[in-house]
TrEMBL record:
Protein name: Acetyl-CoA carboxylase alpha subunit
Superkingdom per UniProt: Bacteria
Length: 122
């Protein structure tokens, strides 16, 4: 489920190697005096009964790698790698991508500062 600033994905019935989970991703934009616009994300949830919480930020020009970071963190907390939370194949991904693009006033073809890739751990 997607609404601007919030993405939710859950599985209420364990099935084979896929445990139960409920994960919420909240995001907003923060203006940093030195770095400019930053995408702030907070990932909270429960995977197979284990509660977790993670927060991270991405620079404006690297923000569109958010799905990779979210997946890596969910897998770190026990979600099997066979489960894809956010994918370009999901309609919610397109909606979220466009919402983030609008909030950041980002445009296709904007340059990427390669130093931001390293700073953002990408």
């Amino acid at each position: 489920m997607f609404e601007p600033g919030h993405f939710h994905r859950s599985n209420s019935v364990a099935n084979g190697d896929v445990p139960t989970y409920a994960i919420d991703l909240h995001y907003d934009i923060r203006q940093d005096a030195a770095e400019g616009p930053m995408l702030q994300m907070s990932l909270k949830g429960e995977i197979d009964g284990a509660v977790f919480e993670e927060s991270f930020e991405l620079h404006r020009d690297t923000a569109f790698n958010f799905a990779s970071v979210v997946s890596r963190l969910a897998h770190k907390h026990g979600l099997p790698t066979s489960v894809v939370l956010i994918s370009h194949e999901h309609e919610e991904f397109d909606q979220m991508f466009e919402d983030i693009r609008h909030r950041l006033d980002a445009h296709s073809g904007d340059p990427v500062d390669l130093d931001h890739l390293e700073k953002d751990g990408l």
